[in-house]
Amino acid sequence: MTKKIAVLVRERKHEALRMAVGATLSNDEVSVFIMNGKLEPDEEIDTNIQMLADLNVKIFSDNPENPYEQKSIDEIAAILLEYDVVLPY
Q1: Are the C-beta atoms of 59 and 68 separated by less than 8 Å?
Q2: Domains along the chain?
């Protein structure tokens, strides 16, 4: 049975993105929510973001400085109710 997994990216950005990539291995539906601050690119972050994009993982952000689909905190809170598992980092 496919599960819906949400990964909240906050303080531990590198670890959160690695976990999101790993969660795709079980063919579950994975979405990433980049919360609060701007996601500062570096080689590891860029690699994981590219891999998530290649795997058609939805990436959302509440910060307009991030180049991902924008959602307000309230919209994100409502969306998270649809997920089976929420992994906060």
Answers
A1: yes
A2: 4-88 (3.40.1260.10)
Instruction: Write the single-letter amino acid at 87.
Output: L
Angstrom distance (rounded) from CA 83 to CA 31: 9
Distance CA 41, CA 77 (A): 26
Q: What stretches in the chain show pLDDT beneath 50? A: none
Question: How far apart (Å, rounded) are the C-alpha atoms in residues 41 and 47?
Answer: 10
What's the pLDDT at 4? 98
DSSP 1: -
Please list, residue by residue across 54-73, b when 16 or more beta carbons sit within 10 angstroms of its beta carbon and e when fewer do.
eeebebbbbeeebebeeeee
Both tokens of 36, joined, read 């609060």
